[in-house]
Amino acid sequence: MNPATAILACIAVPVVGALLVTLTGRWPNVRESVTLLSAATLFALVLFLFRGVAAGARPEALVAEMMPGLSIAFAVEPLGMLFALVASFLWIVTSIYSIGYMRGHHEINQTRFYACFALALGSTMGVAFAGNLLTLFVFYEALTLSTYPLVIHSGTDEARRAGRLYLGMLLGTSIAFQLVAIIWTGWLAGTLTFTPGGILSGKASGATVAILLVLYVFGIAKAAVMPFHRWLPAAMVAPTPVSALLHAVAVVKAGVFAVLKITVYVFGLDAVREAASSEWLQYAAAATIVIASLVALTKDNLKARLAYSTVSQLSYIVLGAMLATTWGVVGGAIHLAAHAFGKITLFYCAGAIAVASHKTEVSQLRGIGRVMPLTTFAFFVGSLSVIGLPPLGGLWGKWFLALGALEADQAIMVAVLMASSLLNVAYLMPIPIRGFFARADGSAEGDKDPDRPPIAEAPIPCLVAISVSTLGCVALFFYAGPMFDLLRGAVVP
Amino acid sequence: MIGGHLPVLLVVLPLMAAPVCVVVRRPAWAWTVAALASWGAFVAALGLLLQVLEGGPISYPIGGWAAPWGIEYRLDLVGAFVAVIVSAIGGIVVPYARSSIEREVAADRIYLFYCMYLLCLAGLLGIAATGDAFNLFVFLEISALSSYVMIALAQDRRALTVAYRYLIMGTIGATFYLIGVGLMYMMTGTLNMADLAARLPEVAETRTILAALAFLTVGICLKLALFPLHLWLPNAYTYAPSVVTAFLAATATKVAVYVLIRVYFTIFANVDVFEAMFLREVLMALAVVAMLSASAIAVFQTNIKRMLAYSSLAQIGYMVLGMSFATLTGLTGGIIHLFNHALMKGALFMAMGCVVFRLQVASLDTIEGLGRRMPATMAAFVVGGLSLIGVPLTVGFVSKWTLVLAAIEANMWPIVVAIVGSSLLAIAYVWRVVETGFFRPTPEGAPAVAEAPLSMLIPTWLLAGACVWFGIDARTTLSVARQSAAFLLGSGP
Predict the structure, then answer these.
(1) Does B413 reach chain A within 8 Å, measured CB to CB?
(2) Which of A24, A109, A210, B239 is the most buried (most CB within 10 A)?
(3) Residue B461 C-alpha from the chain's centroid
(4) How far apart are the first and last CA of chain B?
(5) For residue B289, what is the enclosing H or E element?
(6) Residue A281 domain flag
(7) Nearest CA of chain A to the CA of B414: how many Å?
């Protein structure tokens, strides 16, 4: 197959999938087969592209010219390749998980759920493969709009309020800051195409670059740098598969991915390092890392705790981009992949616990490890990965980020990373430890209700998904080599 | 042969068809006459645009009387472009009108509607075609008088008061325009626009001409409902029959903007009105206030037609803003928004017309959960709404891009903030409707309604589709707008 066709197919397959899901909505088994088939096809296509990109190819595809000099175009480069690989692989896993979760939880509107999910993945692929800022912006917005129905899935007042916040903050910042920055960039540089080394070098004064950088970092609210992070905890009202794939992987990673990509291909690393604002943005990211971790400590709702943990972890990647050193960017990108596997495992477990036992608060989870040993063990492994301990993939991200901080003479950032790891231990480890070692609370609601069957392990599809993502965390530790080689192509000329 | 007479055919066709409607009386026949005449006018307008694009401006002396003495029809690129917009909207509205009017206007008056609609069309096309300042006044009155009648045709008794109020305001506007033209005639002895342009510089400093400019500005701004002269518009749009609202919103105010462009850039072409007479500051300030305040008011409306009317006021602000830059990019933005806004507001009002057709009232209460019962109608509203916000791949994005670019070029950052702010408000008011329509459950006891008839849906979707089509490929429209702007600024062919 022609690589250009493959790129376009990566966008088209999920969209066609969404259409077929809508058409086959009446037959749940056919509908779910369509979802799985689309996910598998997409991953195959991405793998095909990966083989070329790993060998040094940079395939491109032009879709349409909107205005003179402005086009919808795709170009695959290492950062986007990695993001697409992670997202498309985890879509397969999450689809399996969703079947167990959505049926086990007797959710309403399942057809809309699967259709929007597929559309969101199509938008994610568009973000990953975007060849210029305009295309990136188009799919960034499409991702916001396609995930909105998923956020307000339950239709309650709380969900609608969360949806309003979600949409308002994401669309609002993107139009108020990001779009202005893009138009400004286009005017200064005369092009919006992502180019190695940046397009702004020599075309903008230091002050302009500093302002633009701020506009981009805060205009991409999907990266959830404080104070534009509130939408993410709010979005946790969505069904757990959505929180898992979209609000721990696709949507939030699209944000930090955009920050990385703009750093490397619009500004160029040197320009960011010299910009007056990049150091301040490092501090903003560091503050987000620490504050969000502290907030996570105070949350009793499991999903809210995980959401604040995500806010904190996302800023690692923003920090890596703002350090603007080779190791910083590589570390950020590796963290993007590693955190995806770790956090999705945690969300899968949270969802599995909710389906099996209807427990959503951390304080209810004493002794859960005795009835759901597999799930709790996976939660333990996922936690270790997020904390960044060997032998799990999460180590590498932090490792290289710390190297990047040293390279940029920012030893204090190494301290921030270490402090954050300790905080991770503090808010994640108690859950599996109490799950295994504490005695179950006799007065829990579930035990009083005689009609309710005793708590057992989660549905089989959920367990399959949990196992795959847990193994992924381990695999990323041992097989980080290919990922590293791929990424080096992006930042080392 | 006939190609040479197109400029006059454009106007005469609907003008002559109007009395025929009165003669035939039967609604079906009157409709046929109206349809044939407006499609004919569209073909003529399209032919003219092609001629102008190929061979430059066309001059047509009426009755063979040469220019300064007789009336000259003069079609340059802007005029032809506006004629195409108006006649295209007319051609799309007529098929839609058939069902919609039957529901909203008494049966024995339907022929009157078609008659008045044709007169209005003739007037609007005449304004676009004429090259004579007084002749323009005549057409202005033809279109205005017929639109008062069209509004008053609604069965809602409030429409009578509203039409009366519009009549008073409209007449003041037209009279002011006439006074302005009279004062210019006093000083120069000519009514031909090209002639006026040549003679005005000599007397530009006189108080008479200054007064003329003031009268013209205020008079036309009343017609185009620029803040604070907008009071007639929201009620008129709310209580008029839906077709009338769609047609007037998409054409009448646009043509008034066109008249303003004509006055400043053709009649006063050789006088520096923007710099010397503070016009830029005045217009820009009013436009910005309109963009922000009207959008803010729109957020609090429950009647959706009224909400859209306030949104129109804001959008008119965009057009005037673009014009007031008096730069190539700014004027291009104003002219392209003329076209783009006609598409989106047409689609939005027609979608609401479909709702009115089934439910009598389009308000936030009646459309709860309507997305399930009338999916095609509400989907068209979403497309138009996204366009209003300026989401990429819709026409609204093209307009906003150009306008923001113009503001950046002119180094006017407060204007960028205002454009962005108004877009954010648009998210708020559009999303209220989308959320109520799609994501609220259908209330108990809501009337079971079917989708609107195809004769209404197809025209609505034609416009909604055009919003996307010209949003993805804006090359043609942008190049016409840019050439028009260049011609008006005297730097083009």
Answers:
(1) no
(2) B239
(3) 19
(4) 25
(5) helix B279-299
(6) yes
(7) 12
How many domains are there within chain A? 1
d(CA A286, CA A330): 18
Q: Report whether A357 contacts A106 (CB < 8 A).
A: no
Cβ–Cβ gap B401/A137 under 8 Å:
no
Would you say A260 and A333 are in contact if contact means Cβ atoms under 8 Å apart? Answer: yes
DSSP bridge partners of A71? A65
Is the Cβ of B389 closer than 8 Å to some Cβ of chain A?
Answer: yes
Query: Which H or E element spans position B244?
Result: helix B242-262
User: Which residue of B lies nearest to A164 if distances are taken between CA atoms?
Assistant: B431
Any CB–CB contact under 8 A between A25 and chain B?
A: no
Quick count: other Cβ atoms within 10 Å of Cβ B108?
A: 9
Name which of B390, B393, B471 is nearest A175 (Cβ-Cβ). Answer: B390
Closest-CA residue of B relative to A67 is B475
- Per-residue model confidence as pLDDT tens digits over B301-341: 888 999 999 999 999 999 999 988 888 899 999 999 999 99
Q: Which residues of A touch B400 (CB under 8 A)?
A: 179
Q: Tell me which residue of A55, A58, A119, A47 sits closest to A88, measured CA to CA.
A: A47
Which pLDDT band holds residue B349 (cuts at 50, 70, 90)?
Answer: very high
Task: Compute the distance between CA of residue B7 and CA of residue B368 in angstroms, rounded to an integer.
Answer: 48
Task: Confirm whether A446 is domain-assigned.
Answer: no
Contact state of A175 with B408 under an 8 Å Cβ cutoff: no
Interface test with A, best of B408, B409, B413, B417 (most A CBs within 10 A): B408
| Chain A contact for B434 (CB, 8 A cutoff) | no
For residue B153, CA distances in Å to B166, B232, B246, B248, B353 come to 14, 17, 15, 14, 16
A176 and chain B in contact, CB less than 8 A: yes
Residues of A in contact with B398 (CB under 8 A): 66-67
> Alpha helix (H) ranges present in A174-301?
180-189, 206-219, 231-234, 240-241, 251-262, 269-274, 278-298
Q: Please say whether the beta carbons of A391 and A478 come within 8 A.
A: yes
Q: Please, are residues A74 and A130 in contact by the beta-carbon 8 Å criterion?
A: yes
How close, in Å, is residue B193 to chain A by CA atoms?
A: 33
- Distance from C-alpha of B196 to C-alpha of A282, rounded to nearest angstrom: 62
**Residue A259 located in a structural domain:** yes
Entry field: residues in chain A:
493
In a domain, A450, yes or no: no
Domain ranges of chain B: 278-493
Contact A68 B404 (CB under 8 A): no
Interface residue B414 vs chain A (CB under 8 A): no
Nearest to A368 by CA among A429, A438, A318: A438
Q: Whole domain around residue A177: which residue ranges?
A: 3-441+455-491
Radius of gyration (Cα) for chain B, nearest Å?
A: 21
pLDDT of residue B192: 87
Section B197-215 average pLDDT: 87
Residue A237 carries which side chain, given as an amino acid letter? V
| Interchain contact, B392 vs A68, CB within 8 Å | no
